[in-house]
Request: fold
Amino acid sequence: MGIRVLVVEDEEEIADFLVRGLREEGYTVEHVSDGESAEHALAKSEWDLALLDWSLPDLDGLTVLRRHRASGGDVPVLFLTAKDSVFDRVRGLDAGADDYVCKPFAFEELLARIRALVRRPRNSGVTTISYQDIKVDLATHRVERSAKPIELTLKEQALLVFFLRHPNEVLTRMRIYEHVWDERYDGTSNTLEVHVMELRRKLEAKGSRLIHTLRGRGYLFGEPPGGVSEGAGS
Ligand code: CA
Reply:
């Protein structure tokens, strides 16, 4: 089977142009025209790449991408959108897009970017994500630390997966919240804090502290910030 590309685009003319053009280049292409279908297609099948439009009739592309990433999906995604502000580009890339091309675009450039993305090595077939003694199996939702199972809710697991994908990185509350809860962070809700507390309780009962609170900045998962060790055994 060739390289499989999912095209998510609601404008028929652009969709036809992309599907035809990519097939001529030898790609195996499927097309869906709304966000919900895109979400299902991403979840149920293997793709080498998704070309994702932002403005769609139901779920927008940003939401589709956030949900895909929050559930552990790792399909490379290229946003193909008329939204060309720096603000939108940053939002798109922060949501987990691998590349971003603004409409109108030159097909040759799009092809070059697609080639670059599908050349990147991917963890094909690998469904676990781990850090030190923590392991999450994205397919079975099994979470363990030091080979002992930990029971997490789906939200706690999504939060943990987000941390695992960004180890030793300062993560603002807004960034975490908008990824995991898929909503705008209004700065007042304490939902995130409550979930972090629960996740810590379950995760760190079996080992050293991993989720560090950076006052006024957010959270950091991994090595204690500033190289200062915390907790036992270090
Ligand atoms: Ca559109």
Remarks:
- Residues 10-11, 53, 55-56 surround calcium ion (CB under 6 Å).
- The radius of gyration is 19 Å.
- The chain has eight helices and twelve strands.
- The longest helix spans residues 191-204.
